[in-house]
Amino acid sequence: MLKVYSVKNCSLKSVIKQIFSDFNLSIPVKVFIKPNLGGRYPISQGENTRLDIIDSLCTFLAENGCQEILVGHSSLLSFGHCRYDFDTLIKGSKFYRLRKNRIVKLINLDTVERVKFQVDNNDFNIPQILQTHFYINLANLKTHMETGVSLTLKNQVGLLPANERMRKHQKDLDGSIASIGVVVRPNFNIIDGRIGMEGNGPHHGAPKKTNLIFCGDDMVELDSLACRLIGIDPLQVRHITIAQDKGVGRLASDQQFFEYQRYFISFRKPDECYQKYKVVKVWPNKACSGCIFTLSEAHRKIRKNPFILLRFLLRLIRLGRLDVVLGKECQRYRQKYSSQAIIIGNCAKDLAEVNPGCTFLPGCPPGEEDIIKLLT
Known about the structure:
- By secondary structure, this protein is α/β, with parallel strands linked by helices.
- It has 2 domains: 2-263; 274-375, no CATH class.
- 34% of the residues lie in helices and 23% in strands.
- It has helices spanning 12-22, 51-63, 86-93, 152-155, 162-171, 173-183, 219-229, 238-245, 254-259, 289-304, 306-319, 349-354, 368-375, and strands spanning 2-6, 30-34, 68-73, 104-108, 114-119, 122-127, 134-144, 148-150, 188-198, 206-209, 212-216, 274-276, 280-283, 322-326, 342-344, 359-361.
- The strands form 3 sheets. Strands 1, 2, 3, 4, 7, 8, 9, 10 and 11 form a 9-stranded mixed sheet that branches. A 5-stranded mixed sheet has the order 12-13-14-15-16. Strands 5-6 form a two-stranded antiparallel ribbon.
- A hairpin with a 2-residue loop joins strand 5 (114-119) and strand 6.
- Helix 1 crosses helix 2 and helix 10 packs across helix 13 (368-375).
């Protein structure tokens, strides 16, 4: 079962009350909520779960008999330039305000007991609290340069420990996303699309207002409907089709799409590359957040220092074009790179070995200062 709600002229409190009524959900005694807090400073609009929806959800649950609400997230990987531990995330997202509700506890998933599961010879260490609490998967409506979209199935990757998340990104992220769905089936799923993110999400896209909230008990069904309503073919989203094949859920039907077709709003799809200064192209090619954010931070530091920025711009003038390549699928667009491309990170090592004219910087990820020296 799934439903789509327009919240344009409604309060969040009334919509949440309607959701519980429509799905005939009884108020659980214990609830665990997994939001999406994957953004690093500066956080873009549409990137992270908004405080107002989770606050309204917690308030509704508390007022109707729930005795314990755990809001859990894990630390993000830090890359030398900034800490992204649990406390930093809570502060940056203002989720600490949830503590005003006496039954709400903010849980650092880095510290919880875990249970190991195996799917297709792939291990997953899942928080044990999912076995004792009613689990609400609260995702955002975003496009994603690596996986096409970031919805309920993708949001569950945040349940894994940080090092395990990195390994899944480096190996077969889409397959891992689907396999987590085999192990963990949320009791209920919500996609907050009031302000989504289109284009080069999940971090470098643009905000897109829809005023919509998507709800359902089947992640595959819900994600596939959300895809169709933003103009993306779910059959082209690999982790959705793999999850369906693994029995995680079923695709939304044409009838369900036609029922909510009035809410259709086209999202700009992810690009093949980021373009900067008209002559710089960055090809992420399935790169994880390690290289992407370290490169972004190096660029931020270049812009802040006028002398380094001048050197960088003069180099661009001399070259006329600069391609920066990273990620494990770097061979994919090989014919589109210049012969003097800069190749960053261990995942792109194979491309460097067959392109001796390119400059290669190893690391997982490389350091910011090393990237700055390379670019300037």
